Each structure stands twice: as C-alpha cells, then as structure tokens.
Amino acid sequence: MKVNSYGTEAKNGRVSTRKNLFLLLMVLPGAIWFVLFKYLPMIGSVIAFKDFKIDRRGFVFSLINSEWVGFENFKYLFASSDAFIIMRNTIGYNGLFIILQVVIPVAFAIGLNEIRSKRFSKIYQTGMIFPYFLSWVVASYFLFSFLSVDKGIMNNMLGFLGKDTVSWYSEPEYWPLILTIMALWKSVGYYTVFYLAAICGIDSTYYESAMIDGAKKIQQIRYITIPLLSPTIVILTLLAIGKIFYADFGLFYQIPRESGVLFPVTNVIDTFVYRGLMKMGDIGMTSAAGLYQSVLGFTLIMVSNLIVRRFDKDQALF
Amino acid sequence: MSQSAFGENSSNFKFTGKKRSPGSVSPVANFILNIIFIVFMALCMLPFILVFIISITDESAIAANGYSFFPEKLGTTAYEYIFKIGDQMLNSFGISAFVTIAGTVTGVAIMTMYAYALFRDGFKYRRFFSFMAIFTILFNGGTVPSYIINTQLLGLKDNVLALILPLCVDAFYIMVLRTFLKSSIHESIIDSAMIDGANELKILVSIVFPMSLPGIATIALFSTLAYWNDWFNALLYIRTEKLFPLQYLLSQVQSEIDFLVRNSSMLGANASDAFKSVPAESSRMAMVFISTLPITLAYPFFQRYFIQGLQVGAVKG
C-alpha cells in the first residue's frame, strides 16, 4: 500500500492543518477565478427567465428588480424563424466535421506512417499542422485572397478559362462546402499528428507476427492498426459529440465576412447569440438561446461521458 | 531521474517514428502517398505564401491583375506605408505582446498551483476543488450572462484586463497538468523529501516544479497561442482603438484600411500625401503577414511542445 505523505504526521494534527492551509492557498487564485468567470455567469443565466433591464444602480440591482417572465424568452426564441436554422446549421456542420475529422486524419495518419522516408514524413507533418496555429481572422484573409470577387485567384482562374466569375461572398450554395473545407484545412493536420502518435505507440511485435503469418499491408491495417486505434477514435468522437451544440465561433463569424446573404447557411447558435446581443441588444432571447445550448450540451456531455466510461474508465473525463 | 516517465514516453512515441512497422509499402504506393501529402501540405501552406506575395506586390499590379502568385511588379510600398503611418499597428502589436505574456504567465502560474494541490493525495478538500474545476468543463453560463457580469459587475468594459482575465484559466488544462504530475512524480519522492525535512514550499519549488516543466511548457504553449490569436474578447469588450490587439485590428481593417490613417500621428491628409495613393490591398496583407510572423518564427519550438502536448493530452481526454 502506498503510504500517504501525511500519514507520518497524522499524529500531529497541527502540521497537517498547516499543510492543508498551504494547499488551500495554492488553489485560492484559481478558485476565485472560477467563481468570478464561471460560477457567477452560471447563476447569472437566470436572466433567461427574466425581462432583464440594465439599471444604472448596478448589476445586482438590475437582476433583482427585473421582472420574472417564466419561459417567455424561450417561446419568443422558438417562435422566430431563426431557431430552426441555427439548430440545423450547428448540428449539421458539427456532425459533418466530427465524421470528416475522424475519417480523413485516420487515413492520413496511416498513410503517413507508411511513407518510407521518415524525413519527408516529418516535413509533411510540419506543413500540415501550420494552419492550426493561425487565427480565424488570418484564415479569413487567406480565403479572401482566393475568393475576392474582383481580385481573387479563383475568379482570375475562372476568367482565364473563359468562364463566368462568381460573387463568392453572396452565393449561399457554395458555403457549406467552403466552411467544411476551411474547418478541415485548419484541423486535419492536428488530428493527423494526434492519430499518428497513437499509431507509433502500437507494439511492433503485432506487425511482426502478422508478417510471419503472411498478412499483407492492407490486412495489417485492417486487423491491427484500426482495431488498436479504435478506442482513441471512439473517445475523441464521443467527446466531440458532447460539444455538438457549440459551434466554432471564429469559423462562422470571420470566414463569411459578415455577409448577410449567407446567414441562412452560416448562422449558428453562437453567431446568433452574439449578433442578437451586440447588434440588437436583445438580452432576453439571446440568454435563453445560450442557456438552451448549455443545458443541451451538459446533457450530451454527461451521456457521452457515461458511454466513454463503459469503453474505458481511464479515458472518461470523470 | 527527472522527467523519466515523460522522457521515455516521448522517445517511444517520437512522431518521426524511428521504429516502423516492418515491411514497407510498394514503391508505387509510396510514390502515390508522397504525392498526396505534398499536395495537402501545399494546400496548407500556399495561402500563407500567397498573402506574403500580395504584400510585396506593387499596388498597381494588384489593381491591374488582381492577386497573383506571380506578380508583374514587386514593391515594398506596403511595408513602408505601414511603418510610416502604422502607429496603430505598432500599438496593437504591443497590446498583443503584453496580453500574451502577462496572460500566459498569470494563467500558467494559477493553473500549475491548482493542479499541484489536486495532485497531492493528502489535500483534504481535493474532491471539492476537483469538482469545482471539472464542472466548468461540463456546464457554462453562456456568453450573455458572462458578458453582462464582466461588464456590469467586474468593470471589464474597455479594460485591458478584459483581454487577459477571461482566457486565463482553463479547467481542462488543469486536469491535463494534474494527470501529468501524477504520471511523472511518484508520491514517494515527496515522502522522502519530507522525511529529509523539506517543507511544502521547498518541495514545490525544488522538486515538483523542475520535474513538471515539460507539462507546464505545453500548457504555456497553448495559452500563448490562445492569447496571441484572440480577437473574440476584444470584439466583446474593447471599444477604444488604443487597446485593440493585433488580431482584432486585422479584423477591423478588413472593411476599412483608412483605419490606419485615422489613427496615425500624421494627419490623414498628410499621410496620403506621402504616398500617391493608399496601398490598401498590399498593406492589408502585409499586416496579416506581420501578425503571423511571431508564430512562424516560434514554430519549431511550438511544434516540439505541441507534439508532447498531444501525448500529455492523450493520457487523459
């Protein structure tokens, strides 16, 4: 049995208290931060049930004096035509991203692992995780240099080929594809390197004995690599599903450059809440949308954690 | 044996993979794979290269031919322009650098201390504080209540702290760091130090801290990236142009390049006199290039800890 470091001093209660005090001091700054920036907003989310009006006499005053309106804000939210669109877009895009962010990186990682020159493999990795380090603002400029109506590379090329140019930022039909490409552009390298690390961790004796049994490369991948990767895949996927109601704000806000024509295919819960709050000042409806998102997200993450636990207790979040 | 657990792991997992599954793919397959990855790598890097080329393209060539990988005429007007009237750019660069350094240092200190306390078995309130952190991963109050509390109660409106504090702590990194401590430092080391008469502070500073450096470096890297690339908090809280961080300035310049002129110490009219016309297109791209420069330069360092971080993260979640 492991001896607890405090066991030796258990007889001396005072010393132990002093140590706990020391450790309490250690958590104190973090604990204060959690209270101010996480727990106060949680309590503050009751404003979703209020007709919140900002009062000069301070936040607490405004909170107490705002009238309770029950589920009015939610009714108003769900009555709006946006409610369906933002839910569809959020879940639709995230669902698609979850699938593609497993399939492509796993395929890439397997491929990268088979490349003979390890030096090339390393160069490819270096190149492909680069986008992960850049902000969506920068990515938005990158995209703009291709899609700008009058100066972009795409329209230059279309013009060169004698085709009609496209006014990319006002044609919704292209955007599901563009957003998907951008999401993948930024994340595929990251996940590839992640899965590659997992593949490199697989015991090479599995492959050796498979070779002796005459297994071809494709069989080795099918019967060794993929089964051994699957716990990692399942866990990452379940955790991603737990966050399916949270869209990547930067992707949906910066990349389409605030083009209103595109909102039907680019508006997600997060951008909807932001615009409702900052542009229209609608605290009631946006806080209702936010709370709705948080509650759904909480439920999903609990469920997926439960499932992760059944696969592998150590990998569960708690 | 400092950092033994981690050091061994990372050499096993080294992503270049000295160890390889025996038997190689056929030369044809190898060739095709190389082509696929060259194309994908090019797709990842080309936009960045294009932006750089646009930034050194002469404005007249852009006006005539649009953006191009092979411009007709090169020029450094964009950079001259930015440096001449770019008070705002320099200022934003400073804000970003300050916020990144201050935020990373504060955040990493807070998270390390928190993770350390959770790592100690003997800590009486461990379960409580563990829950306190983990619950924030599961549930959050959402943007609106946060915004209202930060502006109404904490006075973060138009305050440089609004760029630092909200990003300071991430419960997920605390848990990653705690797991890292658990896997790399055995409780018996701490026990023996105690028997030797070391106190808590001494144990933390001279034993735990040096041993957990790789884990801390990883957290610091993610924190640095998050701060440098952040524009969201500026979007919510910052209205004074003096406090704009670089990424937010970039997103504002998207719509109006004269933003730079307006905030220059040279009067707008004088500034445009100095140049025949505002090199709007190339300057914008020059700003994008400059803003990514620190990350590009720190890239080798980033990449190393990034890979380590993936492995630390893989231990838990």
UniProtKB/TrEMBL annotation, chain A:
Residues 87-304 form the ABC transmembrane type-1 domain. GO terms for biological process: transmembrane transport. PROSITE patterns: ABC_TM1. It comes from the Bacteria. Keywords: Cell membrane, Membrane, Transmembrane, Transmembrane helix, Transport. It is found in: Cell membrane. This is Carbohydrate ABC transporter membrane protein 1 (CUT1 family). It is a multi-pass membrane protein. It comes from Anaerobacterium chartisolvens. The lineage of its organism: Bacteria, Bacillati, Bacillota, Clostridia, Eubacteriales. The keyword rRNA processing does not apply. One of its GO terms (cellular component) is plasma membrane. It holds the Pfam family BPD_transp_1. Its main location: membrane. The chain crosses the membrane at residues 21-40, 91-112, 133-154, 174-202, 223-246, 290-308. Gene3D superfamilies: MetI-like. The keyword Lyase does not apply. Belongs to the binding-protein-dependent transport system permease family.
From TrEMBL, chain B:
It is a multi-pass membrane protein. The keyword RNA-binding does not apply. It is found in: Cell membrane. One of its GO terms (biological process) is transmembrane transport. Pfam families: BPD_transp_1 (PF00528). It comes from the Bacteria. InterPro entries: MetI-like, MetI-like_sf. Residues 93-299 form the ABC transmembrane type-1 domain. The chain crosses the membrane at residues 28-56, 93-116, 128-148, 160-181, 201-228, 285-302. Keywords: Cell membrane, Membrane, Transmembrane, Transmembrane helix, Transport. GO terms for cellular component: plasma membrane. Its main location: membrane. Belongs to the binding-protein-dependent transport system permease family. This is Carbohydrate ABC transporter membrane protein 2 (CUT1 family). It comes from Anaerobacterium chartisolvens.
